[in-house]
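== Fold encoding ==
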Amino acid sequence: MERSSSSEEREQSIEAFGWAARDSSGYLSPFVFSRRKTGAEEVRVKVLYCGICHSDLHCLKNEWHSSIYPLVPGHEIVGEVSDIGSKVRKFNLGDKVGVGCIVDSRRACESCREDQENYCTKAVATYNGVHHDGTVNYGGYSDHIVVDERYAVKIPHTLPLASAAPLLCAGISVYSPMKYFGLVGPDKHIGIVGLGGLGHIGVRFAKAFGTRVTVVSSTSGKSKDALETLGADGFLVSTDEDQMKGAMGTMDGIIDTVSASHSISPLIGLLKPNGKLVLLGATEKPFDLSAFSLIIGRKSVAGSGIGGMQETQEMIDFAAEHGVKAEIEIISMDYVNTAMDRLAKGDVRYRFVIDIANTLAATRP
């Protein structure tokens, strides 16, 4: 078992334990490191569950060429407040809280003033980011985490904790563009491209908003799940030319969750005039798109990334009120490398969640 070796971290007084990757092989193993003391406006969170996001896999393998090793992933964190700073007003000891993709930002810039900390140019990632004191952040595949109270959200008692974890990234990623682009309500028809970790939650939020929703997938394999389990109103196979032709010009908006390289030109054809295609997946290759496909019908292509802290709390509260939750497979900490292999193959329905509280300690040598 390796220990954190940087001088900055050795000066921290609270020992932590988690699993980390040491290089771009992405292989995770036990890792002892340090967390800073709880600051005046910070809370210490005992991690109970942590979801596995596809971006964890990208970062573990340095596929975005920005990974800092050792790397402890995890930004879908649900836990319990175990310590609070002297100036904390938002939380009490024992509160159930969530920590998502960011743990800090400039706080005074235009984005932060507008409660869009996620678009702050100095936003600090929950893991693989650098704290303002110069230390590297480690994520939720660990026993505890320290975060400023502004960057944590309350988890209502009616929301199952394990199923709530994926909402901290996947959930807000689909909720935010639906609200921002006005794609909610019974007079709207939207498409969800890809029925995976993000897509299945997108269907559930759309139905909770009363929106008509059609799943668009490259194969028919998930049609039964989409229609019967998740309640989608329709299912389109994107490789079926007749189905796609029959649906042309029927959608007000499309939420594209696919991160693998794919053509978006056929999706543009599904949009009504003034329709919006919103990209959530970070594809490796650029898209090939004709300008005329947008000009004819004043259609638009946009991107969206998570949400600000106020909106994230709104999303969590909405999910609790309407029973929106992720379909998950709970795993033990020592299964995480197998889970990563399965995730790379798309072999999960639909989100892995690590039971940190009950399985992490047993992996400590």
Observations:
- Residues 5-10 have pLDDT under 50 and may be disordered.
- The chain has 13 helices and 18 strands.
- The first helix runs from residue 7 to 10.
